Amino acid sequence: MNISLTTELEQFIQGQVASGKYTSNEEVILAGIRLLEERERIYKGRFEELQREIAIGVEQLDRGERLDGREVIEQLRQKNQALRRTQGQ
């Protein structure tokens, strides 16, 4: 596989090797790919978690378990104001 890099990326990679953090250009590139792989795994896990939370919410709505949006906003405002008062002291 051949990869073309911008001058800036080449300089970044060379700088990482020159700093002693990595022993070769390949090691820098592999570290970057591993980070991307880990980020994708985290995003996938969070997406699946959100899907489960949405499904729970839909089930609750189907059972008639609802909160009045205006009441929730008002409660949040009151909590926020109380928090600001305690932090201001």
Automatic annotation (TrEMBL):
The keyword Membrane does not apply. Belongs to the ParD antitoxin family. One of its GO terms (biological process) is regulation of DNA-templated transcription. This is Type II toxin-antitoxin system ParD family antitoxin. Gene3D superfamilies: Antitoxin ParD1-like. InterPro entries: ParD, ParD_sf, Ribbon_hlx_hlx. Keywords: Toxin-antitoxin system.
